Structures are given as structure tokens and as C-alpha cells.
Amino acid sequence: MARAENKESAGPAARTAANVAKRLRRRKGLTQEQLGRVMGYTGAAVSAMETLSQPVSDEMLVKLDEALGDGSGIFEELRETVRLERLPRKFRDYLPIEQKALSLYLYANHVVHGLFQTERYARALIAGGYPTPAPERVEELVEMRMARKDLFDRQPLCLVELVLDESALRRPLGSREIMREQLEHLAACSGRQNVNLYVLPLDAGLYGEYAGARGELNLVETPENDRFVYLDVQDESMLITVPSKVSTLAHRHAKIRAQALDPRKSLGLIRQLAGEGT
Q1: By percentage, how much of the chain surpasses pLDDT 90?
Q2: What span, in angstroms and rounded, lies between the C-alpha atoms of 75 and 200?
Q3: How far apart are the first and last CA of the chain?
Q4: Residues in Cβ contact with 255 at an 8 Å cutoff, skipping those fewer than 6 apart
Q5: Torsion over CA of 34, 85, 235 and 167, rounded to 10 degrees?
Q6: Which of 9-23, 98-112, 122-136 has the lowest mean pLDDT?
Q7: Helices marked H in 56-211 — which ranges?
Q8: What is the per-residue pLDDT for 278?
Q9: Cys bridge to 266: 63, 86, 169, 199, which one at CB 3.0-4.6 A?
Q10: Which regions of the chain does DSSP assign to beta strands (E)?
Q11: How confident is the model at residue 146 (pLDDT cuts 50, 70, 90)?
Q12: DSSP character for 208?
């Protein structure tokens, strides 16, 4: 049943990749088994890709480019489009903006922000949600979430400022070991030249102000210096472009950051929690 659903839901880019792969494989006189051996896959995996019963993965597109592309880069060009097709529809408009951003100003208050999640943390979070995705869909979503991290090493560098609520640091997901690994990853991320990481402490509201009550937000500055805000709550998303609304949310993010611990104290708290095993 899942294979039939995959065939029906496959987008134009995935279908193009499958058709081009089949034609180039046959042109080279390779069987599915032979192509699979070249790429490190089984013949059955190649067959599943060509028939769309299993969506082509990002990793397989890289291997197809090496095995069949002959330097054309045809499968490399398809990677971004295929990635977008496999995303939840609500996220497709935002991702290209995020990946090309000049700067990102983020606030996450329930779980660690997706850009900063480890693979095991992301898998535990996605697999444990509701409705529960099929196992193959979980792996697909995890793969795409990990691919988003390319922007950290992109040139020119994207400045990323994340304010993370302390509650997200104290909420273990998957296991204590997975959470400890996640905290250690956050500590490592804070050492990046283009990353500023702040923790909004649980007692922030004791001082008379608490700007983080209305939930997470993603403020994006484009290379053209335009600004947008992306909101994602309860499977509903919104891309806000009205300047007055964007300005209000930008000021709110600045207020949240002002109420957070400074980067050095934030790192100290993260390391403390990692040492405690959360």
C-alpha cells in the first residue's frame, strides 16, 4: 500500500530523476543490479527508485550523478527541487528563503530548533509526533532536516541568532543519551563564527517581563535586505511579509533576546545540563 501511495504522490522532479536515470542506465548498457553495485545499492533499490515505489533519496541523487552524470551535473541540479517536493507543503515556500538568507533571527520555546537538531534527536521528535508518520517518511523528513544545515557552511556566511527557551533544553526526547548528545551539539554550534546562541531562562518572567509567551518565530533577512517572518504552529504555517507586522515581530525577537542570558552564560548552562545528563 505504501509503495502505491509513493507512486501517486511522487512529484515532477522525482519522476524526472527516475526517467533520466532509467534512460542513462540503459544507454550505458547496465542492469539495475550492475548500477546498484556501482553506487553501493541493491538492484532492488534501483528498481524502487525507477518505478517510484521508493522516493529517490538525496544520497542516491549524489551517487547517480557520479555513476551516470558524466560530469553534466544533471542529478545535482535536481536535488534542490526533489528536496522541496518531499517537504510538507506548508514549508515549501519558506525553505528557499531560509537557505539563501543573509541572516536568521530565531526563537524556539518547546523543542530545539530544527536547524540545530542532531539526527537522533530529530528522528525521535518526528517519529514521536501525531499523527505518527510511516517509518520511511520519518527517515525522509530526518534526511531533509539534516540537509538544511548546509547553510551554516555556505558562502557568504549566514548569521544565525537563536534564542532557545530553557524548557527545550530540559525536555528529553528519545533517551537521556540522545538529549545529552543534542546538548553537546548545541555547545559545539555556539563556537561557530556565524552563530550566536542565547538561552531564555525559566525564571525570566520573575523580573516583570516575558516576551516569549506567544511562541516561536523565524525572522529572515534576505540578500536584498528584505525581511520576512515565518510562523509554524500546530501544522499551520504563515509567511508574513507586511512590513509593519514584520517590524513588530522583529522588535519582539529583540526583546526576547534582551531577556535571555548572554552567549557565555548560555553556553555555561548548556554544558551544565549536558554534564548532568539532563
Answers
A1: 72
A2: 43
A3: 41
A4: 209, 211
A5: 60
A6: 9-23
A7: 58-68, 74-86, 94-99, 119-127, 135-147, 166-170, 176-189
A8: 54
A9: 199
A10: 103-108, 159-165, 195-200, 217-221, 227-233, 236-240
A11: very high
A12: T
